[in-house]
Structure formats: structure tokens, C-alpha cells
Amino acid sequence: MARKIITQVIDDITGDMVPDGLAETIRFSINDVDYSIDLGPESARQFREALAPYTENAERQTGTKRSSIAPRRSTARVDPAQLRAIRDWARANGYEVSDRGRIPAQVIDAYEAAH
Asked: InterPro entries in the record, alphabetically (predicted)?
């Protein structure tokens, strides 16, 4: 059996299907929030035209993009006595933690800040 997957792009503004090869995904940021929108040729032209007064007078920023991925926390094993101490402290300070399993990062952060 053969399977054929067909991707159709819909213009996010007009709701019309965009012919193959003519769709454009435009990415932009405002107030540190990243957006993307799929547009057909006419909507893309209108989008650029609407932003032209701003982009023509704005200062272009390059190389300043910050990663939106949070740094990974170390997964090193922690001493069981330390984990018990964190759980005891958390319960005494109003945090709900289970007897077993992962301790939420916010609880560990609060414990470390208090000690």
C-alpha cells in the first residue's frame, strides 16, 4: 500500500488555500514575543506594505536574538539525605511535595535561596 501526504497551506488572513510554492511563512517579533504567520502572495504584500513606515524608520537589530530555550538543570544525583531535607523544609514552608519522585525546580530554588 502506498501513502500520499498532501500539505495544503491556508492563508491565515483570508482563509483561502494558497497554491503550491506560493505560500510564505513570515516570522516577526514585537515586544520580545515571536510570531509566525502563513500568507499567500497578496496578503504577504499587504503585510509588508503595512509595516513599511515602521521598518523604513527603525534600526535593524542583528545578532541579538536570545535563545528561548531555558538552560538545562544538572541531572547529577543528589544525596538521599539532602532530598529528605528539601522535602521536609518544603512541607514545613507550605509546599506540596510527594514522598518519592522529582522535586519541582521552584521548590529546590526556594530551598537553596533559604539556605
From this structure: E3-bd_dom_sf, Lsr2-like_dimerization, Lsr2_dim_dom, Lsr2_DNA-bd
Ramachandran quadrant class, 5 (left: phi over 0; alpha: psi -120 to 50; beta: rest): beta
Residue 20: band (very low, low, confident or very high) from pLDDT cuts 50, 70, 90: confident
In a domain, 75, yes or no: no
- Return d(Cα 103, Cα 84) in angstroms, integer: 10
With a CB cutoff of 8 Å and minimum separation 6, the contacts of 115 are: none
| Integer angstrom CA distances of residue 4 from 10, 15, 98 | 19, 24, 48
Indicate whether 53 pLDDT > 90.
yes
Query: SS3 of 1, please?
Result: coil
C-alpha cell belonging to residue 34: 515571536
Domain that holds residue 51: 9-55
